[in-house]
Each structure stands twice: as structure tokens, then as C-alpha cells.
Design brief:
globular; four-stranded antiparallel sheet; 10 strands; Rieske Iron-sulfur Protein; mainly beta; three-stranded antiparallel sheet
Length: about 100
């Protein structure tokens, strides 16, 4: 596996998210939950909404279109209408850069 840097830690405040579009991958959502970083697919599994546009609360992100909620840590779909989980990525911070293993 190789480390793919996506952004720096100072680009995402605690409790916020950032959408990135790396080559050869779908759009990704990077979340900063009190200094822990998590990366999941950004496009809601129920529709085409960007999860980075949704509300973040208690480790969950709410889709801005149909209010489906997902666990940021596991990608699990928590509420209807979403039933399919978001893909998650092994995330690391190296030298101030947030990235994933690919």
C-alpha cells in the first residue's frame, strides 16, 4: 500500500469537512473530528449530494438533500432513505498531511 496525501491538517478545522477529488478515485470527504481524521466517499449512496455540504454532529454526517445520516468513522448508513454504507479509507496523518492508503 502507498500513502496518498489529500490535504494538510490545517485545511480542516475541528468539526468540519473538506471535499477532494483525487485522480483515479471518486470524490472524497475528509472529516476532522476533534483532531482525528476520517475519509469516506463524498457522494451520498442514496443520491448525488455531496456529504461535505451536510451537517456534522456527534460523529455523523447528514445528507443535505434527503437527511440520510452516515457514521463518519464506519461509513454505515444510519437512517433512511440511505441503506448502503459509504466506502471508508484507512486514513493517516504524516508530516502534517492527511492521506489514505491506496
Amino acid at each position: 500500500m502507498a500513502f496518498l496525501p489529500l490535504c494538510t491538517t490545517d485545511e480542516i478545522e475541528a468539526g468540519a469537512s473538506l471535499r477532494v477529488e483525487p485522480d483515479n478515485l471518486p470524490p472524497l470527504a475528509i472529516f476532522n473530528l476533534d483532531g482525528e481524521y476520517f475519509v469516506i466517499n463524498d457522494t451520498c449512496s442514496h443520491g448525488d449530494a455531496s456529504l461535505c455540504d451536510g451537517e456534522i454532529e456527534d460523529g455523523e454526517v447528514e445528507c443535505p438533500w434527503h437527511n440520510a445520516k452516515f457514521c463518519i468513522k464506519t461509513g454505515k448508513a444510519l437512517t433512511f432513505p440511505a441503506v448502503e454504507a459509504q466506502k471508508t479509507y484507512l486514513t493517516r496523518v504524516v508530516d502534517g498531511k492527511v492521506g489514505i492508503e491506496v
